[in-house]
Amino acid sequence: MTKKLIGIDLGGTSIKFGILTLDGEVQEKWAIETNILEDGKHIVPDIVASLKHRLELYGLTKDDFVGIGMGSPGAVDRDKKNVTGAFNLNWAHTEEVGSVIEAELGIPFAIDNDANVAALGERWVGAGANNPDVVFVTLGTGVGGGVIADGNLIHGVAGAGGEIGHIIVEPEDGFACTCGNDGCLETVASATGVVRVARKLAESYEGDSSIKAAIDNGEAVSSKDIFEAAASGDKFADSIVEKVSYYLGLATANISNILNPDSIVIGGGVSAAGEFLRSRVEKYFLKYTFPQVRQSTKVKIAELGNDAGIIGAASLASQFAE
Amino acid sequence: MTKKLIGIDLGGTSIKFGILTLDGEVQEKWAIETNILEDGKHIVPDIVASLKHRLELYGLTKDDFVGIGMGSPGAVDRDKKNVTGAFNLNWAHTEEVGSVIEAELGIPFAIDNDANVAALGERWVGAGANNPDVVFVTLGTGVGGGVIADGNLIHGVAGAGGEIGHIIVEPEDGFACTCGNDGCLETVASATGVVRVARKLAESYEGDSSIKAAIDNGEAVSSKDIFEAAASGDKFADSIVEKVSYYLGLATANISNILNPDSIVIGGGVSAAGEFLRSRVEKYFLKYTFPQVRQSTKVKIAELGNDAGIIGAASLASQFAE
């Protein structure tokens, strides 16, 4: 029988699991709630229990699997297979993950950072089309990313490779970022960043706009509201999308001038705006890319949605295949 | 006997040759003039003749060598081992290089772009200290570069990886670049770029300065003149170095936010300014890097000078070692 892969996507709200073929096809998937109580000490035992339960349910044993892969928040030590400072899991200190799961399940285990793992997933069976050079940018609560160059996920010397959200796009008058710098891409292109740009532009906009009115009235406005209003013809909302697209186009163009990947794949919640966002970003991307890069690197929207995490995690485990 | 490597650095003025150990030590080196007459048709035969002559002189045969590596200007096809559009060699069309040299010498041959090859050299035995993640930026007539990530030279999907000179550093009001875009790093940090920045700043500078006076009088001013005047206390020249360093600091910080290399190595003629330039660039680099990157990625000045080309070229040939 052909062996399978297990992918685990560990998040602050839920832990997603998948059983996949060696070709990246999801055969089974399920999720459990993340119990972050008591310094998150239940998380690893809960993962072990859920895996054992499901393997029994499906009549599978350790011999049916090539390996287990996991994407985790926090600082991941890939060699020691542990995680440090994953604050949304209440793991302030170092948590042993791989050694426990390997001992309990008897299956080889690999782990990497969650944004990197999502990049691997999109590259493997998503918009990246298994190309050796793909850069993934995720626009969510923050802006993250993963760089795959010449077939390798690039971690860099201290594991901070792929910090796409902290590319400086406004060097002189940017918004303050949680990282301590000013003008990071994350401050203008995350879900909250889009709203931040809206507030700034609202100060000088004169004209009719439901979004401008909501901001001025102190009502809650989301990036989704802004993209929807722009798509419906709200000129103020449109100017926000334009500005955000400028920042994303500049950043993705410069990434591409450095790496000339096959594609830049944009994912995460904000990317739900789809072609409306992609085409705007591409306009600035084309303006700022070197001619040879302009002709070869493509801007795409992610295809895997929530499954990118388990698929990318499973791809980590394929390293154990003969 | 231990085998050796041959490295060839093909340029528009001279062709440099080196015989190196497998550890990258240069044992012999020589150079010949590049004869670009008659569409550069003498270049490859001249290389073959020079190699045969020297091998005989040193009493060496093809069996003494693992391989030959070459760095070339123009668009290099690494698989077909040919070069297209190397205009400073008068090679407008495709020139067969590797097939001829391999047939004449009987030694395996590898070729890559000259900026990439210089990056390999600096990474191997220069400032890169053989680290798997090194980015090389060369400030000469133009601005070029090479990206080595996870041990691999990154060519990208169309071979335009490492176009560091075409990172956009002035998105809204930049100088026109030869590539057709505006605001590229090359327009402000190449030898001519530094002078371009000087002319722009001279328009609004009021005060005593030999550089400002020379520009206003229409005299020839070089980037070397500007760095020397700045080091001697010329305030106007200092403001030029400051502005150029800002652009280089921003670009190298963003490269590092994406890749987190062990080091960014600055080479080329402009880098002769040494620590005076490096420390200025580093000031802006530190301002614009993500905290983890700031603590781990270093800004260095290249160490190999003119030998980077032959050393990097020789490193290409080490792929043929068992």
UniProtKB/TrEMBL annotation, chains A, B:
InterPro entries named in the record: ATPase_NBD, ROK, ROK_cs, ROK_glcA
EC number(s) recorded for this UniProt protein: 2.7.1.2
Signal sequence bounds: none
Record GO biological process: glycolytic process
Family the UniProt entry places it in: Belongs to the ROK (NagC/XylR) family.
Gene Ontology molecular function: any one: glucokinase activity
Enzyme class: transferase
Pfam families according to UniProt: ROK (PF00480)
PROSITE patterns: ROK (PS01125)
Protein name: Glucokinase
GO cellular component, one term: cytoplasm
Keywords: ATP-binding, Kinase, Nucleotide-binding, Transferase
Mitochondrion is among the record's keywords: no
